[in-house]
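Subject: Predicted fold for inorganic diphosphatase, 250 residues

User T.R. writes:
Posting the sequence so we have a shared reference for the thread.
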Amino acid sequence: LEYRVFLKNENGQYISPFHDISMYADKDVFHMVVEVPRWSNAKMEIATKDPLNPIKQDVKKGKLRYVANLFPYKGYIWNYGAIPQTWEYPGHNDKHTGCCGDNDPIDVCEIGSKVCARGEIIRVKVLGILAMIDEGETDWKVIAINVDDPEAANYNDINDVKRLKPGYLEATVDWFRRYKVPDGKPENEFAFNAEFKDKDFAVDIIKSTHDLWRALVTKKIDGKGISCMNTTVSESPYKCDPEVAKAIVD
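User M.O. replies:
I've generated the structure tokens; pasting them so everyone works from the same file.
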């Protein structure tokens, strides 16, 4: 229960993976914070309400959360994580889904061949997006590939995934639909009849969640318990000294 992954920059100073890592790594390339390595089961996530937002395991009713092995899958079937500096605002009714955001950074499923490490920051190409409705909340799932993957050059849009990894997108919908059922929850639902939208649509959604994040860290929106402490966002009233960040971790 006490386990936390804190992140540091190249100078050894503590940073927030939610606020202090830029969304863009390059033109058309996004950063992704890996929370859950592929094939693992522990439901790890950026702790949005804790100072500096370390990665920790989700807890329900005092117990650590794990996803079940959903036959025929083993744990998560991609490297799973989030794009930093994005936020699905629970006060924003999404025009595509008719549901409000889930109060977290936007989720990413990375489909490359490497099993990434928890806390790793990778650069990804966005390929498409799935609109999941999780207990009445909009929970976008971005499909992306690590730019360092040997096959990355062959993937430029969602149709490339359909062509080169047949069955993978169908398995993704199946996994998200059923992963809470072993815990006694109903199946999840999807907007757009569970169809994946293309790269351009996905990038537009990511940009809109980035705008909402900026409103959050500049205090234009009340995050209601979300910790916006950061060490790099110059226009943010929550910006603090590296020494203050270190004292919090210590």
